[in-house]
Amino acid sequence: MSAAGTGALRRPNDRLRRRRAVNRAMELFGWFAAAIGVALLVILVWSVAKRGASELSIDLFTKPLATSDITGASGGLLNAIVGSFVIVGIATVIALPFGILIAIYVNEFAGPTIRNGVNFVLDVLNGIPAIVIGIFIYGLIVLGRGQSALAGSCALAVLMLPLVARSTIEVLALVPNSLREAALGVGSPRWRATLGIVVPQALGGILTGATLAVARVAGETAPLLLVCSFGITPGVHWNPTVALQSMPITIYELSDQPFPSDHALAWAAALVLILFILVVSLTARWFATRSRRKLARAAG
Amino acid sequence: MSALDTTDVARRPLTGRRARFGDLLLQGAAGVAALGATVLVGLIAWQLIKGARLSLSTFGLGFVATVGWDPVHLHFGAATFLYGTAITSFGALLIATPLAIGIALFVTELSPKWLRGPVTALVETLAAVPSVIIGLWGILVLAPILRDHVEPQLHSALGFIPLFGPPNSVGTGYFTAIIVLTIMITPIVSSISRELFLGVPDELKEGALALGTTRWEMVRGVVLPYTRGGVAAAMTLGLGRALGEAIAVASVIGAYNNSISRNIFSNGNTLGAWIALQFLNAASNLEKSSLVYLGLILLVFSLAVNLLAQFIVRRSARRLGGTPR
């Protein structure tokens, strides 16, 4: 506005033109930024797909990995897939009930001060770098006992906990209060209102949150590197008390080798992992919007 | 389990005591879980302090100002890693912030309706790509491209600034790590910013437009000031993510420990990357303890970043006099 005085000599048309030019430049920048954001994902996925697709075969899913320092790796990913399944599965079994209970406490029992406190603790937990969680589990479990898939599960469970708890808190908050009041109104005690009415209403949302958390930690490498990556026996194993091969560790270690066949297998493993994560998280997202809409409709 | 209890109780008339017992049980279990999360954070801190004690007592606080990592002479310091962590994280934040805000503004203000959903979903999917895959791509695809087509050009054009020194022959180093971290934090900052921009009241935006502002003037005068605190908090969280990243950076940073270089094309190291690379190779108790010390520094950083973000959000909520956003 002050420019009006100093720019008295300038015709208003010029100023308008300049403002429009700035506006257009900024709009172009918005389009450009969005294009880069989308292009990054496309380039990443395309790079992995191009290099991994040629390696896809039945052997990948039926044979275990055979590494060699002389000829490079051969075989498939069966042991890594089984190991990841065991590690992530146990982590989910630990984190899911724990996270849901935290959310129940925050939403159904706690007062505002404690609610803020627990939310803050969850934020802090979520912000702790994965590698630090790895050191924590290393000191707590691995030191003295050796590496194991269970230690890996514990580390991933710590990473999953804030994700599960937060998403459950969000879904529980969407359950309409009228349902709680109706349950309490017909004389059911609080615990039955919670476990019998509120949680089942939110179950879809809770499970989607858990699925997204699984997709998040399935590719987590840093903690597994410290607690479940060393002295792995070749072949397919299910025993969680010893260190098991896993997908992220397989990719990480193969990418570090000099042989082209190692790199080829690393790309194939990356493609399998990325496909798993993308399919799972996109499906979960789709379910999430759907169940949220349903809950919102019930509330309205 | 609870389902069994439920049907069992449903057949009988409820007594006050049974109801109270169930309430106590659920509230107790849930309370213990909530307390457990708090204890867990304390336990993590305690475990790291315990592991770092040997190094803490040997090197003290001078550790953070010492350059070099020498397992043979048992001489360890964190300065190389602190410098690398700072330059890569802030570098990534510098590139990611305008990019992320641009994406968020595109989705909320510019995009045709049909493009909004797909762009949001695709950018957020980028956050789901595991760091190990970004690292694999970074070292096998990105590094050679940067080495051949980007770094020499930047050096010849901007070489008079010491930051853009001669590139190395592999394509690894701070610069490659900055690009990799930018890819990882852009979706985080942009998805939080998008939600903030969506929360700006339409009346304010329409009011600005009715005064005859262009769309950009409306954004600059209404949207950005209104969400300033929240965007700052989103940047802080993105910074926290970049500080702690280990695997993707470990693949592309070049792992060089013995000097601090101003040249962003030279090899270096970061806290997280060095822990990931060296932890299982540590040859002595003192070296392992020093690596845990590095982890402790990371933990302190992540706590500080979180507190800072909370503080920013609180302050801006108070300034706006409304609900926190």
Q: Which descriptors apply to this entry?
A:
heterodimer; A: 300 residues; mainly alpha; two-stranded antiparallel ribbon; globular; disordered N terminus; B: mainly alpha
Helix and strand arrangement:
The complex is a heterodimer of chains A (300) and B (325).
Chain A (H helix, E strand, L loop, with lengths): L2 H4 L5 H42 L4 H5 L2 E2 L7 E2 L2 H32 L2 H16 L2 H13 L6 H26 L2 H9 L4 H29 L3 H6 L19 H9 L4 H40 L1
Antiparallel strand pairs in A: 1-2
Helix pairs in contact in A: 2-12, 4-5, 4-7, 4-9, 4-11, 5-7, 6-7, 7-9, 8-9, 9-12, 11-12
Chain B lengths: L1 H9 L5 H44 L9 E2 L4 E2 L2 H32 L2 H14 L4 H28 L15 H25 L3 H9 L4 H30 L2 H6 L18 H8 L6 H36 L5
Helix pairs in contact in B: 2-11, 3-4, 3-6, 3-8, 4-6, 5-6, 6-8, 7-8, 8-11, 10-11
Describe this structure in words.
The complex is a heterodimer of chains A (300) and B (325). Chain A is mainly α and 300 residues long. Helices cover 77% and strands 1% of the residues of chain A. Chain A is built from twelve helices and two strands. Chain A has helices at 3-6, 12-53, 58-62, 78-109, 112-127, 130-142, 149-174, 177-185, 190-218, 222-227, 247-255, 260-299, and strands at 65-66, 74-75. A two-stranded antiparallel sheet of chain A has the order 1-2. Chain A is globular, with a radius of gyration of 26 Å. With 325 residues, chain B is mostly helical. Chain B is 74% helix and 1% strand. Chain B contains eleven helices and two strands; from the N terminus they run ααββααααααααα. Chain B has a two-stranded antiparallel sheet with strand order 1-2. The relative contact order of chain B is 0.14. At the A-B interface, α2, α4, α5, α6 and α7 of A face α1, α2, α3, α4 and α5 of B.
